[in-house]
Amino acid sequence: MSETLPNLKKLERRPQDMVLTYDNDSEFTVSYDDLRHACPCAKCSPMRNEDDTSRNLRRQIEALPAEKPAVRTVGKYALAFDWQQGCSSGIYRFERIYDLANRRDPDRGKPYVHGAW
Amino acid sequence: MDSRIPLRGWVEVGQYGGLSMADSPVSINSPGASNEASAGPSPQEQKQMEQAYAQMKRKMAMEEIGRKIKHKIMVLSGKGGVGKSTVSTGLALSLAQQGHSVGILDIDITGPNVPKMMGLDGRRLHVENKRIHPAQGHLGVKVISMAFLLEDEDTPVVWRGPIKLGAIQQFIGDVEWGELDYLVIDFPPGTSDEPLTVAQSLPDIDGMVIVTTPQQVALLDSRKSITFSESLKVPVLGIVENMSGFTVNGTTSPGTEVSIAAPGGKTLSAKADGEGNFSVTLDIFKEGGGKDTAEEFGVPFLGALPFDPGFVRGGDDGVHRIVSEPEGPSALAFANVVAAIQDQLSDGTDGGLEII
C-alpha cells in the first residue's frame, strides 16, 4: 500500500490476454490464465496456499476455453471480470492488478486463511 | 372443458400473458389441454402451484424493486455490538438530509431495533392490495423491520433458516418502496444466511459497508466480512470505524495547559483557548484500527464516527443524533462517511479508465 500506484488509463482485451496502460505511460500484458489463477475470491485463494493445489488450480484454468471477459469497475478501487465459464467471483483491487502486471506475487507471500490473513 | 393448467403451462402464461393476482393459477382455462388433465391437480399439486405462483410474482417484484431503487447498500459487521443499526440509521438520515429519498430495510430478524431509533416504536405496517407499505420515520425515511410484526418487543423470534429466508424474501419482494435513491439494508452481525439471501435476491447491490470498532476482536471479524464479500461477489464500499474517540470538552482559565489521564497509561494535553475552552479526544478502545484494516485489505476507509453518548440517548428516545443536532460533530462525521460512500458509488469512470 505504501507504493504510489499509477492510475490505470486503458485496458485492452485481446483473445488471450489484456494490455494495461497506466498514466505514467508504462504498459503491461497480463494473460487471462495468470489473471484467473490470481483470483482473490474465498474459493480460489486457499488453493494457492499449497503448491499441489495451486498447480491443480492452474491446470483447471488452462483447460477452460479461451474467452474475453466482460470487465466492470467496482467503485473506484477495483475491477471485476465476468467469464462465461469458471470463477467470476473475484474483486481485483487495482493494487493486485498492478502486482500481476509487474509479475509480483499478488498475495505478497501470505497464505490465505478464511477470515483473516 | 374446464381443465387445470399444469405448472409448466401456467408459467408460460405468466411469462407471455401478463399474469396478475386475479389470474389464479387454478382457474385459467386451457382450450388446448388434453382430456387427461381434466381430473385436475391434487390438493398437494395445487398448493405447489400456488407457491410457485407466489414465488414467481415475488421474483418479478424483486426485479422491479431493483429497477426502482437506484442504490442498494448493505451494512454489515462481523461482530455484534459495534453499532451497526446506529450506523445504518445514521447513513440513511444523513442521505435524507441531502434531499435523497431513502429507505431502511432492517433484516435483523432476531434483534430488530431500527424502528426504535427512528421513532417508530409500536407502529404497525399498512398492507394494501397484498403489498406492504413501509412506515415513515424522521426526514421521511421509509422503514421496514421485523419489529413491526412482533406482538410485543419481548417476544423472541425463534425461526429456523428456511423460515427466515422466506421472511427476508417477503420483506424484499412484497414491500412497496416506490422510487428510492438509496436503500440501506441493516443486517444482524456475522456472515450467515441473511446477507447471502439478500445478495442472491436483490439485483445490482452496490456494495457493503463494514462497521467495526477499533479493538482487535472486532477487526478480526471485520476481516471475515471482507472475505465474505468476495464470496458473495458484492464489493466492499469501505470500512467505517464506530466508537472511534470520545471528546471531552471543558473550561478553565484561558491559556491553561490541561493534562488528562487517557486509557493505556497515556496522558493527553490540551491548552485552553482565549475563552478558556479546551477539548481532548480519548481513544477509548484503540486508535486507527479500522483504518489499518482497510489498508491491509486494500479497501477504502470511509471514516471514523465519534463515541457519542448522544447516540445511546437518541436511540432510546427515538430521536437520532442527526435529527436532534443536525449540525453537530456526529452529524458532520456521518456526512463525511456518506460523501466517501458516494465517492465509491460513482461508476469509477471518473478516473478515465477506457476498457476496450
Classified in CATH, the superfamily of the largest domain in chain B is P-loop containing nucleotide triphosphate hydrolases
Q: Give a count of the beta strands of chain B, DSSP E runs of length 2 or more.
A: 15
Tell me the structural class of chain A. Answer: alpha+beta
* Main β-sheet description of chain B: 8 strands, mixed
Structural class of chain B: alpha/beta
Element string of chain B (H = helix, E = strand): HHEHEHEEEEHEHEHEEEEEHEHHHE
Total of helices of chain B:
11
Question: What percent of the residues of chain A sit in helical stretches (DSSP H or I)?
Answer: 10-25%
Count of DSSP E strands of chain A?
A: 6
Note the main attributes of this structure.
A: 117 residues; alpha+beta; 22% helix; globular; B: 356 residues; alpha/beta; Rossmann fold; eight-stranded mixed sheet; disordered N terminus
Summarize this structure briefly.
The complex is a heterodimer of chains A (117) and B (356). With 117 residues, chain A is α+β, with helices and mostly antiparallel strands.
Characterize the structure shown.
The complex is a heterodimer of chains A (117) and B (356). A three-stranded antiparallel β-sheet of chain A has the order 1-2-3. A three-stranded antiparallel β-sheet of chain A has the order 4-5-6. Chain A is built from three helices and six strands; from the N terminus they run E-E-E-H-H-E-E-E-H. Chain A has one domain. Chain A has helices at residues 32-37, 51-62, 94-101, and strands spanning 8-13, 17-22, 27-31, 70-74, 78-82, 91-93. The longest helix of chain A has 12 residues, at 51-62. In chain B, 37% of the residues lie in helices and 20% in strands. In chain B, a hairpin with a 5-residue loop joins strand 5 and strand 6. In chain B, the strands form four sheets. Chain B has an eight-stranded mixed β-sheet with strand order 5-6-2-7-1-8-9-14, with helices on both faces. Chain B is an alpha/beta fold and 356 residues long. Chain B contains eleven helices and 15 strands. The interface between A and B is medium-sized, with 31 and 32 residues.
